[in-house]
Structure formats: structure tokens, C-alpha cells
């Protein structure tokens, strides 16, 4: 063998060693980077329980999502209310996954002036008011309120919901079941008529003797005991539900645009406040305190001065309305009542 051949063989071996070393170095560098992004766990998930960590949650029907460790066979508590809602039922030809269903119903929370609630039945059993991760669903229900303070459900609103249901049925090769439109509209009118006789709001007016800034008026109310509640200022009950709220010149304090305030209104929304034998007395007492703090005159919602001796009479009248609400199936400040009286 010539020196040339021996040199070529040695060169080839050297090149092979270089390639091997380069690959080893590349592999080691990649492993280090992976360790930086994905550190080793104390527990192998294939060998037992994982170390504690955040639970992954999937999108739901716009409500709080169920934990992944919830009992999959357990039903959610929220259900369709047949007395105040009407339902379109959609049965799927094949089970639909939670991710697909979420994408399909995203944004379907209201039709016209009426809120829509969405429910689903899990493939294999289980009623859902919100989606859960890694589940499949055999059917879903679109529930729309029959009446609220905007009036009864209209034929246009019902047609819009029906169109949305048809779109979902076509998307998932499903079948629709729903009552006839005439029956729906008749039930909506009945509920609206019933609720019209039960609805009541009572107000007090604080007519300021001199204009004050909106910020100063807000501070006075908060010093007196009002708390922020959404865009409102509210006098809260022990249960965390407002007894009554305040308006500045007829506008929610968070929404007022003017810098000054001439009038403060206290509003007791009867169906949406907890039943109370002294509902008016409490509000009137707070109103008198605010009148002193704001240098204002306390008037009823007809513009007449509020007389001290009239509180008890109004209390009894309002408590009678609370009882009528309850007898009609609308417990004051309950979720069902708020859904209709809103």
C-alpha cells in the first residue's frame, strides 16, 4: 500500500471522527436548551401523580369553567327554566368536541334585547351549563328568556334565534326540535303581562341647594356607606346584593360626563333587591343623612317632601309587593327574578 493510500485512509478516519464529535456537540447543545425550556419534573407523569401545577381550562359558554377534576358524570346545577324561557334543542348526528362547540357558539349570548343561555348534554351522560375540557356532546339547548323589561319576546327575536340554531344544525349535521312560533309568542305575552303587575321601582330625590362637583358628591356617598357595584354606587345588603343604588342627575356615577351634579336619586328596584320589611325606611334614613351632608332637600319620586311619619306605611306596601313576587314564583333578587326583571 502506497503512502498516498495510507494518507487518504487516515484522512477519511479523521473526517469521520470530526463528524461524530460535531454531532455529539450539537446533540448536547440542543439537550441543554430543551432543559432550559422544559425542566425535569420531580414526578414522571407515566409513573404516578404529577407535581402540583396550574389546571388547564377550555373555553366555555361565557361562564366560569369547570375544573378538569370535576366528576364527569355529575350534572351542573344551572338548568333551563321552563316558566320563563323557551328552548330550541339541537341533537347532533355525531358527538361534538368542546373546542368545536365553543367556536360555533362564541358570541351567541343575546338576541335582540333578550339574553340567551346555552346548555349541552355530554355524550355518555351529564348535563352541562358550561363546557369542560376534553368532553364530547350529544346535543345542545338554546334557551331564550320569554320576557324582560324590554317587553315580550318578539317574532323577529325568535326568528333570529331559530336562524342561529339552523346554522348550528347544518354545521354539525344535527336535528332541531322547538315549539311553534305562535305558541312561543303567546307564552311570551302572558309572562310579560304577569310581570308588569309585579314590577316596581321606588325613588327618592335629593335636590341640591347648590351645585357640587361629581367627585365631591361621590365622596360624600362613599363616606356615608355606599360601595361601588359595577358602574353603580350601591347600598349593599348583608348578602352582597344592592338594597338601592344612586344616580347623579339620572345617570350612573361611573357614566356621568358633566363635572357638576345638581341632583342625586336613590332608586329601590324591588324585584332585584332582597325582601325587607323596612325597605323604604332604610332608604329614607340614608336619604335624610345625605340631605344633611349635601345641603339638599329630600323629595319623593313625585317631587313632594318626604314626611317622617310616612315611612312605615310605605314599608308595608312594598312588603306586600315582595310577597306577591314570591307567590308568583319570583323570589326577590334571585337569579331567576333578575333574569326577567332586567
UniProtKB/TrEMBL annotation:
<keyword id="KW-1003">Cell membrane</keyword>
<dbReference type="InterPro" id="IPR007449">
    <property type="entry name" value="ZipA_FtsZ-bd_C"/>
</dbReference>
<keyword id="KW-0472">Membrane</keyword>
<dbReference type="InterPro" id="IPR036765">
    <property type="entry name" value="ZipA_FtsZ-bd_C_sf"/>
</dbReference>
<feature type="transmembrane region" description="Helical">
    <location>
        <begin position="6"/>
        <end position="25"/>
    </location>
</feature>
<keyword id="KW-0132">Cell division</keyword>
<dbReference type="GO" id="GO:0090529">
    <property type="term" value="P:cell septum assembly"/>
</dbReference>
<dbReference type="Pfam" id="PF04354">
    <property type="entry name" value="ZipA_C"/>
</dbReference>
<keyword id="KW-1133">Transmembrane helix</keyword>
<comment type="similarity">
    <text>Belongs to the ZipA family.</text>
</comment>
<keyword id="KW-0131">Cell cycle</keyword>
<keyword id="KW-0812">Transmembrane</keyword>
<keyword id="KW-0997">Cell inner membrane</keyword>
<dbReference type="GO" id="GO:0005886">
    <property type="term" value="C:plasma membrane"/>
</dbReference>
<protein>
    <recommendedName>
        <fullName>Cell division protein ZipA</fullName>
    </recommendedName>
</protein>
<feature type="domain" description="ZipA C-terminal FtsZ-binding">
    <location>
        <begin position="198"/>
        <end position="327"/>
    </location>
</feature>
<comment type="function">
    <text>Essential cell division protein that stabilizes the FtsZ protofilaments by cross-linking them and that serves as a cytoplasmic membrane anchor for the Z ring. Also required for the recruitment to the septal ring of downstream cell division proteins.</text>
</comment>
Amino acid at each position: 500500500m502506497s503512502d498516498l493510500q495510507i494518507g487518504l485512509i487516515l484522512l477519511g478516519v479523521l473526517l469521520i471522527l470530526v463528524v461524530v464529535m460535531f454531532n455529539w456537540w450539537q446533540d448536547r447543545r440542543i439537550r441543554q436548551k430543551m432543559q432550559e425550556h422544559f425542566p425535569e419534573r420531580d414526578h414522571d407523569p407515566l409513573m404516578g401523580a404529577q407535581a402540583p401545577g396550574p389546571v388547564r381550562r377550555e373555553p366555555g359558554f361565557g361562564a366560569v369553567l369547570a375544573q378538569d377534576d370535576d366528576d364527569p358524570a355529575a350534572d351542573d346545577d344551572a338548568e333551563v327554566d321552563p316558566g320563563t324561557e323557551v328552548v330550541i334543542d339541537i341533537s347532533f348526528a355525531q358527538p361534538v368536541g368542546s373546542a368545536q362547540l365553543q367556536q360555533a357558539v362564541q358570541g351567541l349570548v343575546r338576541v335582540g334585547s333578550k339574553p340567551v343561555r346555552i346548555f349541552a348534554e355530554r355524550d355518555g351522560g351529564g348535563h352541562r351549563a358550561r363546557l369542560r375540557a376534553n368532553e364530547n356532546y350529544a346535543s345542545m339547548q338554546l334557551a331564550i328568556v320569554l320576557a324582560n323589561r324590554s317587553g315580550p319576546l318578539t317574532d323577529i327575536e325568535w326568528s333570529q334565534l331559530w336562524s342561529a340554531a339552523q346554522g348550528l344544525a347544518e354545521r354539525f349535521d344535527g336535528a332541531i326540535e322547538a315549539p311553534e312560533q305562535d305558541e312561543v309568542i303567546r307564552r311570551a305575552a302572558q309572562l310579560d303581562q304577569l310581570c308588569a303587575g309585579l314590577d316596581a321601582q321606588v325613588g327618592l330625590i335629593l335636590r341640591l341647594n347648590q351645585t357640587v362637583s361629581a367627585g365631591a358628591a361621590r365622596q360624600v356617598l362613599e363616606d356615608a356607606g355606599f360601595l361601588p357595584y359595577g358602574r353603580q354606587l350601591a347600598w349593599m345588603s348583608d348578602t352582597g346584593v344592592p338594597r338601592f343604588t344612586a344616580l347623579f342627575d339620572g345617570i350612573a356615577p361611573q357614566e356621568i360626563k358633566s363635572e357638576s351634579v345638581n341632583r342625586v336619586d336613590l332608586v329601590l328596584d324591588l324585584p332585584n333587591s332582597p325582601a325587607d320589611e323596612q325597605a323604604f325606611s332604610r332608604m329614607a334614613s340614608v336619604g335624610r343623612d345625605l340631605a344633611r351632608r349635601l345641603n339638599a332637600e329630600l323629595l319623593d319620586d313625585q317631587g313632594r317632601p318626604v314626611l317622617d311619619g310616612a315611612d312605615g306605611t310605605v314599608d308595608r306596601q312594598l312588603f306586600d309587593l315582595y310577597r306577591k313576587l314570591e307567590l308568583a314564583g319570583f323570589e326577590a333578587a334571585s337569579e331567576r327574578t333578575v333574569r326577567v326583571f332586567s
